[in-house]
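DM from R.C. (forwarded with permission)

"hey, sorry to bug you on a friday — could you get me a structure for this? deadline for the figure draft is monday and I only need the backbone to look sensible"
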Amino acid sequence: MFTGIVEELGTVRSIQRKSEGAILEIQANEVLTDAKVGDSIAVDGACLTIVSLTPTVFATDISAETLRRTTLGQRTVGEQVNLERSLRLSDRLGGHLVLGHVDEVATICAWKDEGDASLMRVTISDNTRRYLTYKGSVTVDGISLTVSNVSEDSFEVALVPHTKQATTLGTKRNGASVNIEVDLIARYLETLLKNSGAETGWTEQTGSETLNLRFLAKHGYID
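My reply, with the result:
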């Protein structure tokens, strides 16, 4: 599990394509200070496992599924990627809870600079759109960001100067592909509501209320 707070920018040193999948080598410093084989590293928001390492380079296996579901297959030698070590229970949660399981590869569709900051808009599918809400959290290329606007087919986030300097988003513009992970709480809440039934608000066997849309509306959580 991660927080979406990028620790450093790593550099792709090599990509070895296999019949299915690939081996990715990344040069880094900060994230390797206490790393060992078997540890998890978020690379542009995708949770990968270290299979070998030196003091300055680590290697990970990328499955064919991961290549299909993320932008990692588009990376080239010399390109920078966002890196974050897995969360420790004693760490501060500076962003939000992130699994490193990419939900969708989306496309940056608009970019507007506002002084040193910028507004970035990303096109998304209906499957991802339903999990996003104004002022909610979303992970873009492994970066925890706050949603500033949501429309039918896109969402917008504000990027402060530090985010543009400390992550790869500062180099991306319209047409660039990015990895999207939605808030895991929204995903689990949807499943819970589906399983409990959205219309029935009463359990006959126990005589107690169940968690569903009617319950949430009754107690003021939704309109």
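R.C.: lifesaver. The chain has five helices and twelve strands.
me: no worries. The longest helix spans residues 184-196.
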